[in-house]
TrEMBL record:
NCBIfam families (alphabetical): mutS1, PRK05399.1
UniProt keyword Chloroplast, yes or no: no
Coiled coil: 490-517
Record keywords: ATP-binding, Coiled coil, DNA damage, DNA repair, DNA-binding, Nucleotide-binding
A Pfam family recorded for this sequence: MutS_IV
The keyword ATP-binding belongs to this UniProt entry's keyword annotation: yes
Binding site residues for ATP: 606-613
Protein name, UniProt field: DNA mismatch repair protein MutS
Function summary: This protein is involved in the repair of mismatches in DNA. It is possible that it carries out the mismatch recognition step. This protein has a weak ATPase activity.
DNA mismatch repair proteins mutS family domain mapped to chain residues: 680-696
Gene3D superfamilies for this protein: 1.10.1420.10, DNA repair protein MutS, domain I, MutS, connector domain, P-loop containing nucleotide triphosphate hydrolases
Family listed: Belongs to the DNA mismatch repair MutS family.
Length: 844
């Protein structure tokens, strides 16, 4: 690059800004465009499909440049952020018309992946920016959701697993760390790709943000919080007024599940495809507001472990599900509850629209009714005296017209009578318009030209238009001054019209400016109430979730689970909530789960497809729902309060660290064996199947013995190793369960019923037949199996490689077609065409 001072002054200024913000793409405002230069221009032109041009900048060669129109900039910025870039927006900060020399420009905000306020983002989804403070033997994480202002802090182990869990679980888009942050962990985060890393060294907490620390005295939290707030200050270029006080999260105060378990159980996202489709969250979500949906997600991720807290929620669900009149009425009012959390952010950023304010007023109108309906609920007395911000309501109610424009810029936001000066300006421009109409009539009369009209355009202002054919009627004494010539008309102005034009245009300009000012004032008044609005938002969201749980229970006939202090489990006629609701033609078969006080392991055997995994998931979901405070799909449920759930279900590779299925399986099993307690629930689905039969069986048995002797956690262990059922027969604390199947002439029907005792055989070959494997393969498999079974009985069996004939797929298809039809119900015509089809297939 040529020496800096050879460039034009503007380009020198640009380079200065680039130097100060080397890791951001600079959007430099020039007129109606944001322009990018040099490497930024090359990157953006590739990423955004923009034409790369050049600009003379004082040096010989043109500098690379590309640009986007300012009104469409948001879309482009969002696309860059999606790809992990940061964008620094450089705006003109003085009116170009008044500027002497170079227009003054400044970075007004740096948009980054963790701080973007995407107006169109899915309102139920959240993503965080996190700061990490490494205190040698652990990491303090402070998380912030910018659009809702939520803040939380957590202390975690200094390990890849713990860090991955926090980052993935919270959908963290960006992290802020000190320059000296641990290299190994930094590399792991870099590999995650979806996360942008930013460095910041300054971690002193500013006075203005002390209140957000919420009385937390832990210095580690102060460090991490300081890093984050200083980063936000530096990028957002404003004081963060919408953030909520930091909430300290202690995982051990909730039912703990690792990230894999949350994924396996599809708690908040389904395994197939991303998003919310058919997760427990989407299934349970009957909330009327986005805030409610988000809070429900949090409840699902963090179920409770204190029986008293669970009971508090249960009592509220019972209150609402018993009285469907109240529930229905509540629904009608919850419908008007607007996203107060997101509104808070928009108010703080000054980007709230008149419609936002109107929705806030609606919410404040309905809030007292909601609390009134809820006041009969015995377990939430604190809501009876909540401040519903009526003073704010009275302050802003009636200020805004019923159907305000999208933005303040368009004017017409406030009702008449709101502000005297505004009324006056409106009258002037209104009167001005009728004066123009009068003038038009007068001029038609005076000139005798019926088609004469008065018009307006932005370039020439007001004008009198006369068609070419009528020009003779315009006498010099009328004082018409020519302004513009068109193909078939002339446009004029008169002294009188010019004067009126000044008054009208001035009034209009002032009117818009005044409305913008008044609106900013209004937002500032709301800003004062933000902390109170957050409390209100929290309470409304809680009632919405409780309503949602009651609705779910009412719709599906769920029961209130009972908790006790022992270890016994007794779920009678439990169902899988999601599968049950998805089954349209078949009926879901309910199953009991009974485990006595001392019992540790239930070994579940039965054929593939028999329903073993479903049964295990069903019980885990029931436990989670119960500890959220929800009612559950069962006839009755008696449960202990679990402290942790561990699962090893389904085959999932750890793509992140490139470990094989078997390795992941062993790591997850190890995690469970290391951390489970007698209050935990363990679900192991076919552990050991990823290695040779004897290895797998040996590992499985050793694990069962270990859990039974040392951990005493309640464990559901499904397996195809029938030999393991011996353990159930010989030990008091281990029991066998099996799924029932009906077998007739090699055909199996699944009954999905869990019965006591072990399965008599595995039915693998029968299930393979259902999958339509070639008959000849099935026959050979049966022959081999019989041979091996004989060997097990002490016989000698040496399987030989056998060459079997390849099955003709066409003949198989023809045979299938014949099996499908019932000749007795066919007409002769149908039989003929069927025969014809067969013949055609054969000769194809
Ligand atoms: N209780 C039930 N009532 C009705 N249908 C069920 C029930 N349980 C399972 N199913 C059906 O059976 C299918 C297979 O169940 P599942 O995956 O639990 O079997 P599995 O025994 O774990 O099989 P594998 O050993 O091959 O993993 C489910 O997708 C579901 O459609």
């Amino acid at each position: 690059m040529a020496e800096k001072n050879k460039f034009t002054p503007m380009m020198q200024h640009y380079l200065q800004i680039k130097q100060e913000n080397p890791d951001a793409i600079i959007f430099y405002r020039l007129g109606d465009f944001y322009e990018m230069f040099f490497e930024d221009a090359k990157t953006a032109s590739l990423e955004l499909d923009l034409v790369l041009t050049g600009r003379s900048a004082g040096v010989e060669e043109k500098v690379p440049m590309c640009g986007v129109p300012h009104h469409a900039a948001n879309v482009y910025i969002q696309r860059l952020i999606q790809k992990g870039y940061k964008v620094a927006i450089v705006e003109q900060v003085e009116d170009p018309a008044l500027a002497k020399g170079l227009v003054q420009r400044e970075v007004i905000r740096i948009v980054t992946p963790g701080t973007i306020m995407d107006e169109n983002a899915d309102e139920k989804n959240t993503n965080y920016i996190a700061s990490l403070y490494d205190y040698q033997y652990g990491i303090c994480v402070v998380l912030c959701e910018m659009t809702t202002g939520e803040m939380k802090a957590q202390l975690i182990d200094k390990s890849v697993i713990a860090l991955q869990k926090v980052l993935l679980q919270n959908n963290v888009r960006e992290i802020v760390v000190e320059h000296s942050f641990d290299k190994r962990l930094r590399k792991m985060i870099e590999e995650l790709e979806t996360i942008t890393i930013s460095a910041m060294n300054h971690d002193t907490v500013k006075e203005t943000y002390q209140r957000l620390l919420n009385g937390i005295s832990d210095q580690r939290v102060h460090h991490a919080f300081g890093l984050l707030m200083n980063y936000l200050d530096e990028t957002q270029k404003r004081t963060m007024t919408h953030l909520q006080p930091v909430e300290m999260i202690y995982e051990q105060e909730f039912l703990q599940m690792d990230y894999a378990t949350k994924q396996n159980l599809e708690l908040t996202a389904s395994l197939r495809g991303s998003g919310k489709q058919m997760s427990l969250w989407s299934f349970m979500d009957h909330c009327m507001s986005a805030m409610g949906s988000r809070l429900l997600k949090k409840w699902i991720e963090y179920p409770l472990i204190q029986a008293a807290e669970i009971k508090k929620r249960q009592d509220a669900v019972a209150y609402l599900s018993d009285d469907f009149m109240i529930r229905d009425e509540l629904k009608e009012h919850l419908r008007y509850v607007y996203d107060l959390e997101r509104l808070g952010a928009r108010v703080a950023y000054g980007s709230a629209s008149p419609r936002d304010v109107l929705r806030l007023i609606r919410t404040l109108e309905h809030a007292p009714v909601i609390f009134d309906l809820f006041k009969g609920c015995p377990s939430y007395p604190e809501y009876r005296t909540i401040d519903t911000c009526m003073t704010l309501h009275d302050l802003i109610d009636g200020a805004i017209v019923e159907e305000p424009p999208l933005t303040v810029k368009d004017g017409g936001v406030f009702v008449d009578g709101y502000n005297e000066r505004l009324d006056e300006l409106r009258r002037i421009s209104r009167d001005g318009k009728s004066w123009i109409l009068e003038l038009e009539a007068r001029e038609r009369e005076r000139t005798g030209v019926k088609s004469l009209k008065i018009g307006y355009n932005r370039v020439f202002g007001y004008y009198i238009e006369v068609r070419k054919g009528n020009l003779e009627a315009i006498k010099p004494e009328f004082g018409y001054v020519r302004k513009q010539t068109l193909a078939n008309a002339e446009r004029f102005i008169t002294e009188e019209l010019k004067e009126q034009e000044d008054t009208i245009l001035h009034a209009q300009e002032e009117k818009l400016r005044l409305e913008a000012e008044l609106f900013t004032d209004l937002l500032n008044q709301i800003k004062v109430y933000l902390p109170k609005l957050h409390d209100l938002a929290n309470a409304l969201a809680t009632i919405d979730v409780l309503y949602s749980l009651a609705q779910l229970a009412g719709e599906n006939g769920y029961v209130r689970p009972q908790f006790h202090e022992g270890h016994r489990i007794e779920i009678i006629e439990g169902r899988h909530p999601i599968l049950e609701s998805m089954m349209k033609t078949k009926r879901y078969v309910s199953n009991d789960l009974k485990m006595e006080e001392e019992q540790t392991v239930s070994i579940i055997t039965g054929p593939n497809m028999g329903g073993k995994s479903t049964f295990m998931r069903q019980n885990a979901l029931l436990v989670i729902m119960a500890q959220i405070g929800s009612f559950v799909p069962a006839r009755s449920a008696l449960l202990p309060v679990f402290d942790q759930i561990f699962t090893r279900i389904g085959a999932s590779d750890d793509i992140l660290s490139g470990k094989s299925t078997f390795m992941v399986e062993m790591m997850e099993a190890n995690h469970a064996l290391q951390h489970a307690t007698e209050h935990s629930l363990i679900l192991f689905d076919e552990i050991g199947r990823g290695t040779s039969t004897y290895d797998g069986m040996a590992l499985a048995q050793a694990m069962i013995e270990y859990i039974d002797a040392n951990i005493h956690a309640k464990t559901l262990f499904s397996t195809h190793y029938h030999e393991l059922t011996q353990l159930g027969e010989e030990n008091e604390t281990i029991r066998n369960l099996h799924v029932e199947v009906h077998e007739e002439k090699d055909e199996v029907t699944f009954l999905y019923r869990m019965l006591d005792g072990k399965a008599d055989k595995s039915y693998g070959i029968n299930v393979a037949r259902l999958a339509k494997l070639p008959e000849i393969v099935l026959q050979r498999a049966r022959q081999l199996l019989e041979g091996w079974e004989l060997q097990g009985d002490g016989g000698i069996y040496q399987p030989q490689m056998m060459v079997v004939e390849k099955e003709d797929p066409q003949m198989r298809e023809i045979a299938d077609m014949i099996d499908m039809v019932d000749i007795n119900t066919m007409t002769p015509m149908e039989a003929m065409s069927f025969l014809y089809e067969l013949k055609k297939k054969r000769s194809a």
